[in-house]
Amino acid sequence: MPDLSAEDALEVASTYSVADSDYDYGTRPFRQVHHTISAVALVGGGSRPKPGEITLANKGVLFLDELPEFDRSVLEVLRQPLEAKQITISRANSQMTFPANFQLVAAMMNPCPCGYDGDTSGRCRCRPEQIKRYQDKLSGPLLDRIDLHITVPALPIADLQNAQAGETSEQVRVRVIAAHKHQMQRQQKVNNELSPSEIDKYIQLGEGEQQLLQLAQQRLNLSARGYHRVLRVARTIADLADSIDITSAHVSEALSYRSK
Q1: What does the alpha-carbon distance between residue 102 and residue 30 come to, in Å, rounded to a whole number?
Q2: How many alpha carbons fall within 13 Å on the CB side of residue 91?
Q3: Please, how many CA atoms are within 13 Å of residue 17, restricted to the half-sphere of its CB?
Q4: DSSP labels, 183-216
Q5: How far apart, in whole angstroms, are the C-alpha atoms of residue 30 and residue 28?
């Protein structure tokens, strides 16, 4: 991720000061929480409201490992701050609003209780109702707020033994910083923060790209939120490719990341 601006670094430092937590000034926060966490610990609270994990992850990353193991009621409290990028804690005598502009990264290692659903070996012995009950812990509205859904299948031993070296994090970061610079020059904010009206202004599609997105919206039954998120992702993919225009390839890639 790009370095924090001086203003953002000060905001993060102020948040950690309120929470009485240590912070390495100038770095982006990375918060990893256990699946036993409570909703109050995640969003913040107390008799004198203090920031929770989503606020401590502001301007950084909140990582949830083994996502289906979290209590569904805990996961559902993420919906509003993911959309509004802030969280309001109300108590009888006070009300506090904390920033919550974080990047959510979640891992779901097991697609079913036994972990082998979809495996070509056929080792999965879970009944369909067990798989559905396991996956239903993740609600549609929450998944709709997650832009990129990546499936990572098990690799054959031959592929592991002959693995080719990919790009390093340093190489990827150069592209990310360049894309971030494009966005700040174009609209003074990152693509994820564009409002619907700003999307209409800064994200222009050609006729072919519009037709592709219209067809995809019908087939994938995209919500208005999902439609706008696809546009933001397509614009980001184009920025990473150093492309001024959004092409059909960029739109297709953005659509491929939506939840199936």
Answers
A1: 10
A2: 12
A3: 7
A4: HHHHHSS-GGG--HHHHHHH--B-HHHHHHHHHH
A5: 7
Q: For residue 60, give the DSSP letter.
A: S
Question: DSSP secondary-structure letter at 154?
Answer: P
Mean pLDDT by 10 residues, the chain (260 residues): 92 92 92 94 83 95 92 92 89 82 89 75 83 83 90 81 87 95 95 93 94 90 90 97 95 88
* Cα-only R_g, the chain: 20
**Are the CB atoms for 124 and 116 separated by under 8 Å?**
yes
Put simply, whether the predicted model's pTM sits higher than 0.90 gets the answer no
Question: Helix, strand, coil proportions of the chain in percent (round to 5)?
Answer: 45, 10, 40
Rounded alpha-carbon distances, angstroms, from residue 141 to 3, 34, 66, 147, 225: 31, 22, 19, 12, 10
